[in-house]
UniProtKB/TrEMBL annotation, chain A:
This is Cytochrome c biogenesis protein CcsA. Pfam families: Cytochrom_C_asm. Residues 130-352 form the Cytochrome c assembly protein domain. It is a multi-pass membrane protein. One of its GO terms (biological process) is cytochrome complex assembly. The keyword Membrane applies. Its main location: membrane. It comes from the Bacteria. The gene is ccsA. The chain crosses the membrane at residues 12-33, 98-116, 136-153, 160-181, 193-218, 262-285, 300-315, 327-348. GO terms for cellular component: plasma membrane. The keyword Transmembrane applies.
From TrEMBL, chain B:
This is Cytochrome c biogenesis protein CcsB. One of its GO terms (cellular component) is membrane. It comes from the Bacteria. Pfam families: ResB. It comes from Microbacterium trichothecenolyticum. Its main location: membrane. Residues 1-26, 554-576 are annotated as: Disordered. The keyword Transmembrane helix applies. PANTHER family: CYTOCHROME C BIOGENESIS PROTEIN CCS1, CHLOROPLASTIC.
């Protein structure tokens, strides 16, 4: 914690950051309520769909059918088609999910405080606010939220809200508690334009990988649900059973395949930025340390992550690997990103000793 | 549908390739394979998607240990320390090359296999792609409604001739518009239906091939360029001159093809090393920065020039780059024997041990004294006494400099001809005369002080470089350690890396798609169909088709073409 006594710009920054954390925590709760309620909404929708289908069936069979059961596979497909449309719906035409709206509003509010905290920190320090671990986490989480909010304009990804706000609360909270560092002048190696570029691009890549990760996790859950439903359909001959097939909100999400292709889109964007991070880092290392590559711990991990995502991209194009297996690679890749940022920074020895922690 | 010539070639286990069936699966379809068969089978395995994937994952895993265990290349001192701390484990790890992970046989095996696989994969694909770029877009499929994106319109006309003319105009227009939009087009006309087939996005495959080939380029640049690369280290004390010859380097690592006798003849003189400190009281107090080595550079038969080396800003000279790697203090020490004759007078670089520049150095006096004498010194730029009587430095600048020595006499062990580090003293054949457990206090000197060596050996002086100045600010010389590099590879590596990135951008974001426009005439109506097919990831396909169809229809509605304007098109909603 900084000295509390005089109200310096930096202590204002800290205050803003804590406020942002609190608001994000509220957003997290709202989004969680939304997910919980989606299950119920889905049930209503299912009943409605069943009703329509029943009527259709009656019409088709000239009233003679009498069968009132809708195949659960068809039901699931119908839900998924609807969910995919909802995913791509323009901002004005989205489902009125009250709690999701509250969640998004709170996230925007939290983002504004967060942005304020980040900018005041930068002004207080007189440089870009990503020069030590505290500031990097501050800006990195800011970008995660920014990318999430930005993507919302294009896709209705509010079902990822719990994951994003949860992740940010944990990272930002942990950062504010454990990583706070006073503002000190930059060490010589950090005085470089590459600090501005390299670190910023790395944060951007991280944000995109985070979204891909969230989607890959959902993809796996959805794939499991789809398998279960398929099994159920086989067992019951297509009757809609009441057996549990997974968390209720999954019913309101697009198919595993659609989630996968969305995850892939974010992952390849992230991969491009990561490639750029790698190159920019090498150029900087060549200026600062006299070699562009030396398998320093941080370099090793940047490389490992790059190769993992290259593997993920390949897996998506390899028969037998597309689908759940490749999703695991996206998950492992993001785990490595987080590991690189936390554990490697804190405990591994190397030239990148700029965390500002002792 | 990967049998079209214009489709990129993919290994057989690619997700888009047709699944293997009994007739094409297996190596040679039963029976004896023979040597060639086996070789072909092995090659196919090696260049399969699955192998590439497994090798990539192996590469990622194999790289990790190098971040857990110190590496000789990045952290030689760490390795030495590891051997001390884990005497049992270290030799085992060493056998497994875990201190040289990135040059180890197993790591090399993985990436060499990966690159062999890559080359084996890329060459046939490049050939195929070369042909594909010259081929025509494929025939218009019979049933367009089955494709990923589809849309149709029915146009009505007064009579059959009008309809025929309109169909021809529509396809003609579609062909032109598609070509303008960057598609390669081909006409496939039948008796009643005219169609244009269009394909775009060959750049996607080109990008993919460029990317993979550029990776090979990076590897080759590193491998070959490394042979012409050297790095050398040296130390220059303020006021001294260093000459670019093998003699003057403290260490030198040449690549295989470097001619050590052909180094560029230039000299560097360190005029001054300047830096600044965060003042006490401020946040980050004592932190040093703004390091600048002010140099004079000199070529034979040329005027001297001023040069500077700063962190992040190496000095470029004669194709070399000079980097600032470290700095420290080099106290000037004069030792006289009991007769008062000078037997040693040098500025000795001391190695910094902490952030406040507590530094350690060694003085060896092989001749001129009664015995060989070695001194292990500690230098504190701003000394403060600890409660146990020892000193520590509390600030990096020269506020209250203090130099202390332990003194040893006996055999320095340097006569045997084995080179010894100037920074370490081996006291095993010596007796300690001062400091430590010797019973005599260690020697303590401030700049300008002269004290007696123990046992009446003589005297030692810590020279003050600016005796007439009021404070100690410039009382001790500083030195810089420089690293001099010639890197023949770096530029090429960068070129290939940029090429790879450009290729990657194209490979990932250029959509590859086909489009067809077909006009089928039936009496006085024309059935216009638009269809699109994604070849690879293409989220924008639907939008693109819709946009094209609208633009195309709008252009038809324009009165420009001959014949009657079509009556209001009736849109049939797409059931798909
Ligand atoms: C150094 C090792 C390799 C790396 C880092 C790497 C990386 C990548 C990346 C990032 C992509 C996605 C971009 C694109 O589509 O062009 C890709 C695609 C591809 N790679 Fe590699 N690759 C490597 C080795 C190989 C090998 C050995 C093969 C041959 C078996 C191969 C075959 C392919 C194919 C066919 C694609 C296109 C996938 C698709 O159709 O979407 N790659 N690779």
């Amino acid at each position: 914690m900084p000295d509390a006594s005089p109200l310096t710009l930096d202590s204002v920054s800290v205050l803003l950051v804590w406020t942002a954390i609190a608001i994000y925590a509220l957003a997290f709760i709202a989004y969680a309520v939304d997910l919980a309620r989606r299950g119920a909404v889905a049930v209503d929708a299912k009943d409605a769909a069943a009703k329509i289908a029943r009527e259709r069936e009656l019409v088709a069979a000239g009233g003679a059918g009498g069968g009132s059961r809708v195949g659960i596979i068809e039901q699931m497909r119908a839900q998924e088609t609807a969910s995919e449309e909802a995913l791509n719906a323009p901002v004005g035409k989205r489902a009125r999910l009250v709690w999701a709206r509250i969640g998004t509003s709170l996230t925007v509010l939290g983002f504004l405080f967060h942005l304020g905290g980040d900018v005041t920190r930068g002004i207080a320090a007189g440089r870009v606010p990503w020069s030590n671990m505290y500031e990097f986490a501050l800006t990195g989480t800011l970008l995660i939220v920014a990318v999430y909010l930005g993507v919302l304009f294009r896709y209705d990804l509010r079902f990822l809200g719990t994951f994003i706000t949860g992740l940010v609360v944990v990272l930002l909270g942990g950062t504010a508690i454990w990583f706070y560092t006073d503002i000190v002048p930059l060490m010589d190696p950090l005085k470089s334009v590459w600090l501005v570029i390299h670190v910023f691009v790395a944060s951007l890549a991280t944000a995109l990988f985070a979204l891909a990760f969230g989607l890959s996790v959902l993809q796996l859950m959805q794939a499991r649900r789809e398998t279960r439903i398929a099994a159920l359909a086989k067992a019951e001959g297509g009757a809609s059973g009441t057996a549990k097939t997974g968390p209720g909100f999954l019913k309101t999400l697009p198919s595993a395949e659609a989630l996968e292709s969305l995850a892939y889109r974010f992952a390849i964007l992230g991969f491009i930025f990561w490639t750029f991070t790698l190159i920019a880092g090498s150029i900087w290392a060549n200026d600062a340390w006299g070699r562009y590559w030396g398998f320093d711990t941080k370099e090793v991990w940047t490389f490992v992550i790059w190769v993992l995502y290259a593997g993920y991209i390949h897996a998506r194009a390899t028969r037998g690997w597309r689908g759940s297996r490749s999703a695991w690679l996206s998950i492992i890749g993001f785990t490595a990103v987080i590991f690189n940022f936390t554990i490697v920074n804190m405990f591994f020895k190397g030239l990148h000793a700029y965390s500002g922690l002792n | 549908m990967t049998d079209d010539v214009t489709d990129p070639l993919r290994p057989s286990d690619h997700a888009d390739s047709p699944a293997p069936d009994a007739s094409t699966g297996g190596a040679a379809g039963g029976g004896a394979l023979g040597v060639v068969g086996w070789l072909r089978w092995g090659w196919r395995q090696l260049t399969s998607m699955r192998t590439a994937l497994v090798l990539l994952l192996l590469l990622a895993i194999a790289a990790v240990p190098g971040s857990l265990v110190p590496q000789r290349s990045a952290d030689p001192n760490g390795v030495r320390q590891y051997f001390v701390d884990n005497a049992d484990l270290a030799p085992v790890l060493d056998k497994l090359s875990l201190f040289d992970v990135y040059t180890s046989p197993w790591f090399s095996a993985i990436y060499i296999l990966l690159f062999v696989s890559l080359v084996g994969c890329v060459i046939p694909r490049t050939k195929h792609h070369y042909k594909a770029m010259r081929a025509q877009p494929p025939r218009t499929p019979a049933r367009l409604a089955r494709l990923d994106a589809h849309r149709s319109e029915i146009l009505e006309f007064q009579d059959d001739t009008d309809a025929a003319a309109a169909a021809a105009t529509a396809i003609e227009a579609a062909q032109q518009q598609l070509r303008k939009a960057g598609y390669r087009v081909a006409r496939y006309d039948g008796a009643t239906s005219l169609s244009v087939s269009a394909e775009r996005g060959y750049l996607r495959e080109t990008g993919n091939l460029v990317f993979h080939a550029a990776l090979v380029g990076v590897l080759l640049a590193v491998g070959i360029g490394g042979g012409f690369t050297y790095t050398g280290q040296t130390v220059i004390i303020e006021g001294r001159t260093w000459v670019n010859t093998m003699l003057d380097y403290t260490s030198f690592n040449p690549g295989r093809f470097v001619d050590e006798d052909a180094l560029q003849p230039y000299a560097l003189t360190l005029d001054e090393f300047s830096l600044s400190y965060v003042t006490p009281g401020a946040k980050g107090a004592g932190q040093a920065g703004d390091f600048v080595a002010h140099l004079t550079t000199q070529f034979p038969d040329a005027d001297a020039e001023a040069g500077e080396v700063r962190v992040n800003h190496p000095l470029q000279i004669a194709g070399d780059k000079v980097y600032l790697m470290g700095n420290g203090y080099a106290p000037t020490i004069t030792i006289r024997n009991s007769d008062g004759d000078v037997v040693f007078s040098e500025s000795v670089p001391f190695l910094p041990q902490d952030n406040n520049m507590t530094s350690q150095g060694v003085v060896k006096v092989p001749d001129g004294l009664r015995e060989q004498v070695g001194l292990v010194g500690f230098f504190y730029p701003t000394a403060q006494e600890l409660t146990n009587g020892a000193y520590t430095s509390v600030y990096g600048d020269l506020e209250y400099p203090m130099l202390t020595f332990w003194v040893y006499a006996g055999d320095l062990g340097i006569d045997g001809g084995v080179p010894k580090s100037v920074y370490t003293l081996d006291p095993s054949e010596m007796t300690q005369l001062a400091g430590g457990d010797s019973g005599t206090d260690s020697l303590e000197l401030k700049p300008g002080d002269t004290v007696d060596l123990p046992d009446g050996l003589g005297t030692i002086t810590f020279e003050n470089e600016t005796p007439e100045a009021a404070g100690f600010q410039d009382s001790v010389k500083r030195y810089v350690s420089l690293s001099i590099h010639r890197d023949a590879a770096a530029t090429w590596v960068l070129v290939f890396a940029v090429l790879a990135t450009a290729g990657l951008l194209a490979a990932l974001f250029v959509p590859r798609r086909r489009m067809w426009v077909k006009a089928t005439r039936q009496g006085h109506t024309v059935h216009l169909e638009y269809a699109g097919l994604a070849r690879g990831e293409d989220p924008a396909l639907d939008g693109a088709l819709e946009q094209f169809a609208q633009r195309h229809l709008a252009s038809l509605a324009d009165p420009a073409p001959a014949g009657e304007p079509p009556t209001k098109p009736e849109s049939t909603p797409d059931v798909d």
